[in-house]
Amino acid sequence: MKLLWLDLNSSYAHSSLALPALHAQIANDITIEWCMVSATINENIGNVVKQIYHHQPDIIAATNWLFNHEQLLHIVSRAKALLPQSCVVLGGPEFLGDNENFLLKNKFVSGVFRGEGEEVFPQWLKVWNHPKQAWKSVTGLCYIDETNQYQDNGIARVMNFSQLISPEKSRFFNWSKPFVQLETTRGCFNTCAFCVSGGEKPVRTIPLEAIRERLNDIHQHGIKNVRVLDRTFNYNNKRAKELLDLFRNYLDICFHLEIHPALLSEELKKELSVLPKGLLHLEAGIQSLKESVLQQSRRIGKLSDALEGLKYLCSLKNMETHADLIAGLPLYHLSEIFEDVHTLAEYGAGEIQLESLKLLPGTEMRRRAEELGIQYSPLPPYEVLQTREISVDELQTAHYLSRLLDGFYNTPTWQSITRTLILENPSFLHEFLNHLVQTDVIDTPLSLERRGLILYDFCKKQYPDFLTQVSIAWIEAGMSLKKAPAERVRTKRQVPPESWEVIYGSYRENLRLCFLPTDEEGHGYWFGFESEIQKIQPVFKATKLL
Fold first, then answer.
1. Mean pLDDT of the chain
2. Which residues have CB under 8 Å from 153's CB, separation 6+?
3. Residue 522: left (phi > 0), alpha (psi -120 to 50), or beta?
4. pTM of the entire structure?
5. Torsion (CA) 532, 533, 534, 536 in degrees, nearest 10
């Protein structure tokens, strides 16, 4: 029997764990011939279908999730038309809800799996070509039987999670990507109504020694970034500390973690504060800074504790903490989103990620959408279109605000000046957002340089007191000294003053100096460059002593 796995990802950088996780459990079964077609959603559909067709598989399997849903169905429906004897079976987050309508509409799909597949997928492979009566014993499998009746076998859970063979043992594990994913726990203690893990119980763990072995393997492959997939890394502070102690042994790897700021113990805070710089990259689940919103979303943890924990995490200089907000949550108003962005900027969040709520299959919030007054798209990505608290127009404004944050606050070059403008001018976000919308650039991909030109031009008209800071950011990013943000910079025959305060670097006579004045009395900033090239970052910065 030949099984073809369609590995369809959103981009080259991403690689699904589903195939290696499933394959690892039955890699020694010689009755199964495995093959794979790998593609991204941006590739030519006809070419992907051609590759599948040339393999002539008995089974076509794939993972269906939010961002590959549409392309996946286009591909497998065409493959099934060319290979009518093939059996198409799918799994993934898209099937965590009721699957009857999907299966009745997409007759080319023989069945879908709800839940975790490492144990039940091998069971199905033993009966895949038997009469569908035999499929009733496969937990989590949903299908239309021979009498055209929908059969639902519930949800599959791997209770012996720690006994699974790790995905890294599979020959299909992809070591060529920029990062690898590592699951040290499965399930989530939290009950968030908008999350597919809100009902994923119980939390199951892998022993520390097993994780050490896997990290050794990952390290030997030269991997520099590991994304820990645990839904809440610090659901158990003692275990979190043990894992951090383990991570210390891999100082050339950066570990990406999702952490709940409301659950930080004092001991874990102390541990985080003394970790080597660059070892951790934190995602702080916050969603909203409004108590009523979090309560309606059924998120565990007091807001006061979350704010205290988030403020602490953002204060740490040895790691960067990103915080996320979700527009479209019940009871969440647009004005409150702007307020929360201001608060997160005040805390010094490394990034502020503002996303629109998506009502995912299998979530409580999707089931209660009408009761909560939420209207959402019936097609992926199921984004919220309107709620009782936020209108269609306001959700579009939230989308534009997200674009502004990504382009300016979340970009290291422009972050400091953007944060300053947000904190010192209550109307800045609204005014700058209106400017970006009115000039029709808000949804346009912009280069780093173009963003600087836009910000400089805007500040020149609206916030002239901040022009120097924009110019400094421009110069330090290595932008051209011949363009507008550097229009006040003097580049010819610049010599050091009698005394200056060195901010960074060390002055050498062969450095090319330029001077950015801040007043008429000769005060300002000197920057030293290694060469005459106009686009190069300075290696020296100083200011004249008063």
1. 95
2. 135, 136, 138, 139, 140, 141, 142
3. left
4. 0.92
5. -110
